[in-house]
Amino acid sequence: MGNICGKSESEAFSQPGRVLGSTPTQPERVSVPAHVGGPPRTLGGGGGSAPSPAGGSNADAEEVRRRAAEAAEARAQAASAKSSGQLGAKLAAQKKQTRNDTLQEISNNERRQRDADEGAQARIHQ
Questions:
Q1: Are 65 and 73 in contact (CB under 8 A)?
Q2: What distance in Å separates the CA atoms of residue 49 and residue 42, rounded to the nearest whole number?
Q3: What is the distance between the alpha carbons of residues 92 and 25, in angstroms, rounded to a whole number?
Q4: C-alpha span between 18 and 69 (Å, rounded)
Q5: Residues 98-120: b if buried by 16+ CB within 10 A, e if exposed
Q6: 38: nearest Cα among 29, 50, 56, 30
Q7: DSSP letters spanning 62-108
């Protein structure tokens, strides 16, 4: 079987081989700088002891967080207030259903299906 993603000609043997026990040539190594710069930081936390680049304080960060939360709440209220038509009304009704309501609806559907099947069987055997 062939390789679908590979090239059609075999390039594995296009170069001369090497003797067993010999090592292949190593590429040149790139030097890594000893000091990258800046204080060490941890990822994620955000509440580090290092001052922010803009020179803000902890109170400014709290103010920004509060404003972001208010904006998110405003977006959520605007999205819920929008009328999305008939489909949105059906979705809202489905979300309001409890687990018992859903199970009761499924049970009723199953009963109706069985009654319809029994009626069809009775008509066939008459």
A1: no
A2: 11
A3: 67
A4: 65
A5: eeeeeeeeeeeeeeeeeeeeeee
A6: 50
A7: HHHHHHHHHHHHHHHHHHHHS--HHHHHHHHHHHH--HHHHHHHHHH
Q: Tell how many helices (H) and how many strands (E) occur in the chain.
A: 3, 0
Q: What is the 3-state secondary structure (H, E, C) of 14-65?
A: CCCCCCCCCCCCCCCCCCCCCCCCCCCCCCCCCCCCCCCCCCCCHHHHHHHH
The pLDDT-based confidence of 88 (bands split at 50, 70, 90) is confident
User: What is the pLDDT confidence band of residue 105, given thresholds at 50, 70 and 90?
Assistant: very high
